[in-house]
Amino acid sequence: MIFAAGPRSPAQPRHPLLRGGLVLLLSLVLGGLTSFAQGMLPSWFSSVANSASGWTLLTAVLIWRVRLSWWLSAVLGAASFVLLTVGYAVVSTLRGAYYSPILFVVVGVLIGPFVGVAARWLWERRFRAAAGTAALAGIAIGDAGYGLTAVGDTTSPVYWIVIGAVGVALMVTMLSRTIRGGVPILVAVLGAVAVAAAYNVAFRLLGGTL
Q1: From CA 115, how far away is CA 139, in angstroms rounded?
Q2: Distances in Å between the alpha carbon of 4 and those of 30, 94, 117?
Q3: Which 8-state DSSP code applies to residue 107?
Q4: What is the pLDDT of residues 103-122, one digit of tens each?
C-alpha cells in the first residue's frame, strides 16, 4: 500500500525547507516526464491522460512522504499541483504540442491545499485521519466512477478500475490500521462517498474539461 499511518505526533523533519524543496523539484520533473509518458503508455492504460487523479495521487504521495506540518503541506499541495502542470506544459511545448497550463494551475491553487492537508493527515488518527482518508479515497473512487460512466465509451476501463481500487485499498488500510471508533469510521466512509459524488457532479457540470 502506498500510504500507511504513523503516530499522532511524528517528529518534524530536521530540515523541513529542504524536504519541501524536494517536493517542488520532483513535482516539476514528474510533470515534465508526464509529457513523455503520455505518448508511451499502452492503449489499455491511456485513460490516465483523461484523468485528474493522476497528478492528485502524485501530489499526495510526495507530501505524505515528507511528513511536514499541516500548513506547509497545504502550501506544498497547491505548489506541487501547479508545478506538475507547468512542467508538463513546458515539456509539451518544447516538443511541439502547445499546452496552456492556466486551467489546471487554477485547479491546483484551489484544490491543492486540501490534497496536501489530506495527505498529511494520513499520519494522524481518529477524525483527522478519517477526513484525510475520505478526501483522497473519495477523489480516486469518484474519478473511477466518472471515467467508467461518462467517458467509458471512448476510453479504456483499465486505469479507471485501477484508480478505483487504489481508493478502496487506501480506505481499507486506514480503517484496519489507524481509524478507530464508530464516528471516525462513519466520517471516513460517508465522507468518501460524499467526495466521490461531488467529484462526479463537478466534472459532469464542467463537461470533463479539467
Answers
A1: 10
A2: 23, 38, 15
A3: H
A4: 889 888 999 999 999 999 99
Total count of domains within the chain: 1
Percent of the chain residues topping a pLDDT of 70: 90
What is the per-residue pLDDT across 75-88, written as a single tens digit (0 to 9) for each? 999 999 999 999 99
Go through the chain and tell me how many residues it has: 210
Give start and end residues of each alpha helix (H) in the chain: 16-40, 53-66, 70-94, 102-121, 126-149, 157-177, 182-205
Q: Give the amino acid at 156.
A: S
- Whether 210 is covered by a domain: the verdict is no
Give the amino acid at 1. Answer: M
How many whole angstroms separate alpha carbon 34 and alpha carbon 31? 5
Does 7 map to a domain?
A: no
Structural domain includes residue 2: no
List C-alpha distances in Å: 158 to 38, 45, 187. Answer: 15, 6, 29
3-state SS assignment for residue 85? helix
3 falls within a domain: no
Q: With a threshold of 0.85, does the pTM exceed it? A: yes
C-alpha to C-alpha distance for 23 and 28, rounded to whole angstroms: 9
**C-alpha cell read off for 123:** 499520519
Grid cell at residue 61: 504521495
Task: In the chain, count H helices and then E strands.
Answer: 7, 0
Residue 45 DSSP code:
G
Which CA distances in Å does 155 have to 109, 130, 138, 152? 28, 32, 21, 5
**Whole domain around residue 159: which residue ranges?**
16-205
